[in-house]
Design a protein that fits this description.
Number of strands of chain B: 4
Strand content of chain A: under 5%
Number of helices of chain B: 4
Shape of chain A: elongated
Number of helices of chain A: 5
Distance between the termini of chain A: 86 Å
Oligomer: heterodimer
Largest sheet of chain A: none
Order of helices and strands of chain A: HHHHH
Largest interface: A-B, 22 and 31 residues
Distance between the termini of chain B: 77 Å
Helix content of chain B: 40-55%
Radius of gyration of chain B: 24 Å
Low-confidence stretches of chain A: 1-5, 10-22
Number of domains of chain B: 2
Shape of chain B: elongated
Chain lengths: ~90, ~140
């Protein structure tokens, strides 16, 4: 009866067999048994994930640095004072 | 009266401390005053139109730079970016935003006649008596 339960979806239901070997005892332990089934279940999944790899290729055109940086118009107004101060405080670099 | 005789009176010590403080203060002020000017090489490169102000808040090359000019511009831009980064953090804006705001100011207020600046269409222009062409987003 226990062996009948050990179908592909029965890893959690076939408790009787796992208990006999104890949780971790040797190759027949419950954890070992669950892991073994887990590996078999996951193998097809990794196969599905592989085609999802992103292919990155270098562009053939030269890279142009875009000067259209994101500027929030409303912040420019309130930066007036700080900008003035910093320009006056560091005349050697401005 | 077994007290050891002090090396100098309290009054003398006060005077000495004040003198030291004054000297230190003087040294600081002198250093600050020294830093208040552009490096002559930087000033010359600006005046000669070899380099100019970019709308982004940094210095750019108008013509292909010599090794010396290249090093000078990089040094200035690193220092500018440091200032911009500090200010961006203080004001809760991005570094690009602060740099851009300052770039507007630098083109409008810090370029003098004969110096170069880059217009929004990326062409280099020479500053004259007329107002400079700046980005429409400049306040």
């Amino acid at each position: 009866m226990i062996h009948l339960l050990n179908g592909p979806f029965s890893m959690w239901t076939a408790k009787g067999e796992h208990m006999r070997g104890g949780l971790t005892k040797g190759r027949n332990g419950a954890i070992h048994s669950i892991m073994k089934k887990g590996v078999i279940f996951l193998l097809p999944l990794t196969g599905l994930l592989l085609p999802g790899c992103v292919q990155v290729t270098a562009p053939d055109k030269p890279i142009v640095i875009n000067l259209n940086i994101a500027i929030r118009q409303e912040v420019l107004l309130r930066l007036d004072e700080a900008s003035k101060k910093v320009t006056e405080a560091n005349p050697e670099i401005f | 009266m077994a007290d050891k005789k002090p090396m100098m009176s309290d009054k003398m010590q006060d005077r000495l401390e004040m003198l030291v403080a004054a000297l230190l203060l003087g040294a600081t002020v002198t250093t600050a005053a020294y830093a208040q000017q552009r490096d002559p090489a930087y000033q010359a490169a600006r005046s000669e139109g070899l380099i100019g102000e970019l709308p982004t808040g940094y210095v750019g090359y108008v013509t292909a730079p010599s090794a010396a000019i290249d090093a000078l511009v990089k040094d200035i831009n690193i220092k500018r970016k440091q200032v911009y980064t500090e200010q961006a953090l203080t004001n809760g804006v991005t570094v690009e935003e602060f740099a851009f705001r300052n770039g507007c100011r630098l083109i409008k207020e810090k370029t003098v006649a004969g110096e170069k600046y880059q217009a929004p269409d990326r062409t280099w222009k020479t500053r004259d008596a007329s107002p400079p062409v700046v980005d429409a987003r400049c306040p």
